[in-house]
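Hi all, long-time lurker, first post. I run a small reading group and we've been trying to get comfortable going from sequence to structure in the token notation. Rather than ask abstract questions, I figured I'd post a concrete chain and ask someone more experienced to write out its structure so we can walk through it together at our next meeting. Sequence below, copied exactly:
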Amino acid sequence: MIKYVYREVGSFMKKQLIEYIESDKFETMSFNEIKKLLGISKKHMNDELKEVLNSLELEGLLYEYKDGLYKKMPSNFLVTTIDETKKGTKFYELNDVRYILEKNKLNGALCYDKVIIDTNTNKVVKVLVRNMPNVVCEVRMTPEGFKYLYPVNTNNNLKITIGTQKMKKLIPGSRVLIEATNEIYDNMYVGKYIKTIGFINEPDIDFKTIAYNYGFNLEFPKEVLEELKKFSNEVTYEDKIGRVDLTDERVFTIDGKDCKDMDDAISIKRKEDGGYILKVHIAHVSHYVKFGSATFEEAARRGNSVYFPDSVVAMLPERLSNDLCSLNPNVERLTRTVEIELDKNAKVTSYKTYRSVIKSKLKMNYDDVFDIITGKEAKSEYKPFVNDLMILKELSEKLTNIKIERGYTNFDSEELKFVMDELGNTKEILVEKDNIAHEIIENCMLQPNELVTHLYPGFPFSFRNHELPSTYKMYDLIETIKELGYPVRNLKNMKPNFLIQRLLNDFKGKEEYVIISKIILTSMKLAYYGTENKGHFGLAIENGYTHFTSPIRRISDLIIHNLLDMYEEEEITKEKLIEIDKMLEKLLAHASRMERQAEKAEYEADKLQVINYLKQRIGEEQIAYIEKITPEYIKVIVPGLMDGIINYDSMPERTYMLPSGKLKGVDTGRVYKPGHKVLLTIKDATYVDKSIYYNLVDNLTLTECDNNKLTRKL
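-- Answer (accepted) --
Happy to help. Here is the structure in token form:
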């Protein structure tokens, strides 16, 4: 990675060059000519000047168009960072507009690379910095018998070489992890061999490939495993010193049935005046994993735990994630407790945080809790907690109303659940939706996530930011919905939060909701971590929000716990605050990237499982909804089976595209548009291009409409 120059002499050179470039006297110059211009004669200053020139290129002032030849950055060139959707489409943004980069115009660029783009041709001109350089390649043979590296699942035409001698040692059919540089040799990017991860005939090779391609290691370094040896197998007397003993309190966890890394627990009491005392107990992972330790550094590299259909690539070693830090029942665990007092209307009246030790009394799951709070008889082990759960339900309902009143945006949440047979094949796919039990935990966790941001005002901190959508995006959203022919109630002068809330409520329960909610979601900006509070649009929180409640599986939360420990224990000087702030900026930028990487890896792993499932069901019927109509194909959403494609040769009639983005039948005059419910049959499913293909059998929305008209006539 290119280092910026902070030394005095480097800063002076940079200042001189910037002044010269901005004076319009700068023309094409070689490295030696620039040296002469700056009066540099000593050879040892070459590296320093090169760093200055690199930094000016990164800032969009200079362009090195040939080795050692520089000119002013052309006006149509843009220095930017490539991003990627979870489906692998590369893009960049300019003035809130997203520009898609075609595969043949990437010039070997990978996701998160810092690049120069020619905005006239929408093509990557040059890769400046690789931020996520590792890529899995398959060793293949040409018909002539030469080995070459084929990047797997990068959605890219990346050509890469590691040198003839190293290639000789690689076995055809193996998959290897390669670090791609931005150096070019013989029209190929230079790569560095890291290791062989497996072979194409191994049953788990595709999941390994997904993990490594998105930056997640499957093994922990030796230094981390060595650090684990110093931890006791149980909470010791020394561990408890300075902690509040809450082991006698009625503390419990609520998670999914299969959850093994439980990082939050709760306890609740009703006050005599009708108010509440809510205690949220979070695993005190920073007691074990501190800033600067090998375990923290590895956790920071991973950023998150990644959850695949039948496995987890954990952020922390299993001994920590599933044992010492997990709030398992009937064992003492170290926690940080946030104790919150709320009045009878669920308004926070006071709060405090302290180090504690708890002993969870019961590991509950969402399904059992849902049954209890909706009136079913509790299982015997739950009976002592029924009153607590009913108090939580009551408090949660009030907290939900508060969220709605301030403009909270609520998208229905659902997750695919894969039911496996004894051989590891998917025999059934279920769709799990959040219920009241999930909402209770969400509301309980939102409180400390918001409140801890106010503990140390003025000190460097991590915020979970979700910025307002642009005015352009809001206008475009409404116009898109109108163009599709869907009614939109009067939204004039409505704030964005309430506008989106209204739209979601208007379509909730209707067939079009699955499409409209997706259009709305794509109009919103992505959430990210930063050192400056920009507010959280989706939650309608302006005064600061963070992620604090999942330190076992998110580095962002572990950072917060370490910061709180540091601010409690140390006297922080002004110089130390500056140092912490710089450290946080880098850590949080990486955490935001790895969060996206985890989402993409999980999506790809789920899609692989769905594709393998559908391969055995070619010809079966499915109900779907049209999401998008393009000149090349129709994109559909199949509930429970992810998205798919209908090619126009798989339609029951000839069609043509209308200017409005709808589709019209040539012979029937039938109009197809996003949101229509359709009947499909499975045509093909292939992991090569990560796509599911369908035949369209009938437009059920139009058929049902025609039947209703016929019924009225009769």
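A couple of things your group might point at:
Confidence is low (pLDDT under 50) at residues 1-9, 710-714.
Residues 408 and 540 are 5 Å apart (CA to CA).
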